[in-house]
Amino acid sequence: MLDSSLNRTLSGVKIVDMETLKQAITTLHETYRIPHIMITSIALPSPGAEPSLSVVGSTFTSTATPRIFGVKIPAIDCFFSGTGDMFAALMLVRLREAVCAIDGLINKAAWVSEDDVKATELPLARATEKVLASMHDVLTKTKEKRDEEVAKFNARIEGREKEQDKKRLHLVKSKAAEIRLVRNSESLKNPEVKFRAENV
Fold first, then answer.
1. Buried b vs exposed e over 14-43: b needs ≥16 C-beta within 10 Å?
2. What contacts 87, CB < 8 A, 6 or more positions away?
3. pLDDT at position 2
4. Domain span at residue 47?
5. What is the DSSP track for 69-108?
């Protein structure tokens, strides 16, 4: 898994649009022979559209040709710490699950699907859909609780302009935005898939 800045370092391609993103993925497949690539936190400009983030992935063919798909999700207006770790941990489990659902794939080198499997049907695409379903649900619920905590704190200090209250508000926001995994374990176990992989 790569974020866009690390991807640029490895591929030498500056990602500014979908074409340069495809070029970067192709370079990584061909140069480093990486079978599966995930690029996270892609926010390409799209005038007039609702704020969103995309995850773009690819599993190469036997000739290192990319099979690129993308999953777009609505952006959540909140800073969360640890989302990269959460994505990686969930992806590990869900990719293995998706691979095991295909007869014999678990025994193939690097779990690379046959060349005739379409990008949106790849185990990597199926895993990404489930991972993002879990994450979006958990993060949405986390933000709802965060907003409640911040509102309660603001109500307590209403009318005061103390410097220490500003510092405490920052701490309240940070603590309240900690990802609520345990309380939302059902979203991890049985996510409702709402965002589907599409060809890129």
1. ebeeeeebbbbbbbbbeeeebbbbbbbebe
2. 1, 40, 131, 135
3. 56
4. 2-199
5. EEEEEE--SS--SSHHHHHHHHHHHHHHHHHHTSTTGGGS
- Cα gap 28→188, rounded to integer Å: 30
Give the residue among 190, 186, 196 at the shortest CA–CA distance from 73: 196
Residues 6+ apart with CB under 8 A from 171: none
Nearest-angstrom CA–CA distance, 74 and 31: 33
Please say if the pLDDT value at position 33 is more than 70. Answer: yes
Angle between helices 4-11 and 18-32 (to 10 degrees): 50
Place of tokens 């970067």: 24
Q: How confident is the model at residue 39 (pLDDT cuts 50, 70, 90)?
A: very high
Q: Which two tokens stand for residue 143?
A: 């933000």
Cα–Cα distance measured from residue 107 to residue 100, given in angstroms and rounded to the nearest whole number: 9
pTM: 0.89
Residue 117 has pLDDT above 60, yes or no: yes
CATH number of domain containing 24:
3.40.1190.20
The number of distinct structural domains making up the chain is: 1
**What is the predicted pLDDT for the residue at 5?**
55
